[in-house]
C-alpha cells in the first residue's frame, strides 16, 4: 500500500452535545470529493443522547452508516425512518434539506456509526433533494477464506484475487463518482483490492490496526487514522494483532473551489449568503416532529 498522507481524527462535539471523532478538510480538500467523516462510538448514552435536533443542509450529500445502535431520521420531505445496525442512509441535500437524527429509544447497547459529507458539483448543488436508505435491502458483501469481509455500502467492489464482484444498487449518489466499503479482517491476515479506476482513495481505520510498509519501514496505524493512498498501486490491507476494521472512501475529485459555513457547502460566498437567507426565510420547508 502506497500511503500519500496520514490524518488523525480529533475529538469534537456537534448536535446537542454529541461527542464525536472528526476528520475534515474544507480548505485544501485533500479528500475531494469527500469533505468530512464523523465517527460516533460510545457505550455511554450521555455521549450521544442529545442527538442532532432539526438543522439544515445545502450543497452536499450526507452518507450515514451504522454498525451498532441506531437513530430515527426525520426530514422536511416527510421521510421518517429508523436507521439501525447494518443500515446505510444517503441524502443528496441539493438546494436544501431540514432533518433531525435522534437516538432510538430502544438502542440500549451504545452507538457506533459514521456520517460522511461528500461534495456536490456546482451544476448539481441546487437540484431537488433526494433521500435513499437500505433499511429494506441488506448491503451486499464478499468474504474469503482468509478471514476478510467486504461490505459494499455504495458502488461496485471486488477482491483483487477473485473475479467475483458486488454492487450496492440501492444507493445512487456519491456525486455520481464514488464508492464506499466497510472492510474487516481477522488478526494478522491480509487482502488486496484493485482501486485504480478511481483517482483518489482514503481509508479510515475504526478498529484494530493496519500494518504497512512505508519507505522500507513496517509501520502500524491505529484506529482513528485516515490514510490517503495511491489507488494506482495495488492496495494491500494487512491486519495487526487485534484485527482490522476500516472504511474505504473512493472517488474522483470534483476540483472546484468551495466556500463552507456550518451545514452549507457552496462555491461562492454569495451562494452561502443566499443559503443563510433562504433558511432564515423558511424557504427550506418545515420539519414536522409529530
UniProtKB/TrEMBL annotation:
Natural source organism: Shewanella aestuarii
Q: What is stated as this protein's family in its record?
A: Belongs to the pirin family.
CDD domains hit by this protein: cupin_pirin_N
Q: Where is the Pirin N-terminal domain?
A: 28-118
PANTHER family recorded:
PIRIN, PIRIN-RELATED
Write down a Pfam family by its short name: Pirin_C
Q: Where does the sequence pass through the membrane?
A: none
By its UniProt entry, which InterPro entries does this protein fall under? Pirin, Pirin_C_dom, Pirin_N_dom, RmlC-like_jellyroll, RmlC_Cupin_sf
User: In this protein, which residues make up the domain named Pirin C-terminal?
Assistant: 181-285
Would you tell me the protein name for this molecule?
Pirin family protein
Amino acid at each position: 500500500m502506497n500511503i500519500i498522507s496520514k490524518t488523525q481524527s480529533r475529538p469534537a462535539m456537534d448536535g446537542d452535545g454529541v461527542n464525536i471523532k472528526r476528520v475534515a478538510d474544507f480548505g485544501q480538500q485533500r479528500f475531494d470529493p469527500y469533505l468530512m467523516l464523523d465517527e460516533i462510538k460510545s457505550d455511554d448514552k450521555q455521549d450521544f443522547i442529545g442527538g442532532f435536533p432539526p438543522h439544515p443542509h445545502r450543497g452536499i450529500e450526507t452518507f450515514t452508516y451504522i454498525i451498532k445502535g441506531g437513530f430515527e431520521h426525520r426530514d422536511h420531505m416527510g421521510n421518517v425512518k429508523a436507521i439501525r445496525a447494518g443500515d446505510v442512509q444517503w441524502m443528496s441535500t441539493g438546494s436544501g434539506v431540514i432533518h433531525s437524527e435522534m437516538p432510538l429509544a430502544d438502542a440500549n447497547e451504545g452507538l457506533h456509526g459514521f456520517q460522511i459529507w461528500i461534495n456536490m458539483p456546482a451544476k448539481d448543488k441546487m437540484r431537488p433533494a433526494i433521500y435513499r436508505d437500505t433499511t429494506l435491502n441488506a448491503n451486499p458483501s464478499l468474504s474469503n477464506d482468509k478471514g476478510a469481509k467486504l461490505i459494499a455500502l455504495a458502488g461496485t467492489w471486488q477482491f483483487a484475487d477473485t473475479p467475483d464482484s458486488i454492487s450496492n444498487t440501492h444507493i445512487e449518489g456519491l456525486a455520481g463518482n464514488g464508492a464506499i466499503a466497510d472492510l474487516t479482517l481477522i488478526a494478522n491476515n491480509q487482502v488486496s483490492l484493485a482501486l485504480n479506476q478511481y483517482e483518489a482513495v482514503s481509508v479510515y481505520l475504526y478498529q484494530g490496526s493496519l500494518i504497512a510498509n512505508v519507505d522500507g519501514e513496517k509501520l502500524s496505524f491505529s484506529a482513528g487514522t485516515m490514510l490517503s493512498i495511491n489507488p494506482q498501486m495495488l492496495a494491500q490491507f494487512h491486519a495487526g494483532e487485534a484485527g482490522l476494521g476500516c472504511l474505504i472512501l473512493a472517488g474522483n475529485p470534483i476540483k472546484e473551489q468551495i466556500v463552507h459555513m456550518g451545514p452549507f457547502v457552496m462555491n461562492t460566498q454569495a451562494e452561502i449568503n443566499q443559503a443563510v437567507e433562504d433558511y432564515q426565510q423558511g424557504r427550506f420547508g418545515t420539519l414536522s416532529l409529530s
